[in-house]
Amino acid sequence: MTDHAQKLLNGKILIVDDEPAIRKFLSISLEASGYSILEAENGKQALEVAALKQPDMIILDLGLPDKDGKDVIKALREWSNIPILVLSVRADEKEKVQALDDGANDYVVKPFGIGELLARVRALSRIYGVENGNIQETSFENNGLKVDYVARSVLLSGEAVKLTRKEYDLLCLLTRNAGKVLTHDYILRELWGPAQADQAQYLRVHIGNLRQKLNDDPSQPSFILTEPGVGYRFIRQD
User: Are 123 and 183 part of one and the same domain?
Assistant: First the structure.
């Protein structure tokens, strides 16, 4: 077993459920199996705890009081590969497929047997224990620009920058790969899907809009450098 797998088997699990009785039951059962427990009762709290405490796994209810659990999964997947086990009363196949497509790693329907749940937790620990770190950086900061991936906010010299969803997604992709050349095809596939992989002009428009909002002069760029005929590179100034 790898060191990281052992870490998961004896690590922190974040339980996200709005029912105190469920959280208490899960906490007792998981602690008896050697895990330490973190808790959250809604989606906002779950994202905050995940970012600050960096658990090794999340057990997530979908029916949260402030937002749907699938939205929590999608938000987490913007900055983390942490294993997510959905625990929900929603037994419909479409719900299961959607949660898994959004980034969940497993799905257990309530009511559940604690033996099965613990087995699923152990299985995820074994499978994802071979990964070299599930938590990615939660923010990017360089040359006066700060991108907070958890809060989905962008600041330039302390001032908020208003971006469209696609502009924000493009900036996240570039900053997460700062210093690397990303080809036109790669960016288009990642953000718009394979059907748009040959639409380089479409990408140029979004790059232009993003540069304008970041006050980035393409002739003397501070952030986005064009690699002629290839793609773009986000400049990292250490």
Answer: no
pTM of the entire predicted model: 0.63
Q: Measured at the alpha carbon of residue 58, what is the angle toward residues 96 and 138, in degrees to the nearest 5? A: 110
Which pLDDT value is given to residue 7? 45
User: What is the rounded CA–CA span in Å between residue 120 and residue 125?
Assistant: 9
Q: Which amino acid makes up residue 87?
A: L
**Cα separation, 46 vs 80, whole angstroms:** 13
Three-state DSSP state, 108: strand
CATH of the domain at 226: 1.10.10.10
* pLDDT value, residue 6: 43
Provide, rounded to the nearest whole percent, the portion of the chain with pLDDT above 90: 47
Within a domain: residue 7?
A: yes
Taking alpha carbons only, the member of 175, 218, 212, 172 closest to residue 191 is 172
- The Cα–Cα gap between 2 and 78 comes to 26
Residue 92 per-residue DSSP state: -
Residue type at 30?
L
Percent of the chain with pLDDT over 70: 89
- Torsion angle, CA of 153/155/159/162, rounded to 10 degrees? -50
For 122-137, the pLDDT digits (tens) are 888 876 653 434 456 7
Contact 10, 118 (CB under 8 A): no
What b-and-e string marks burial along 118-148, b requiring 16 or more CB atoms within 10 Å of the CB?
A: eebbeebbeebbeeeebeeebebebeebbbe
Tally the domains of the chain: 2
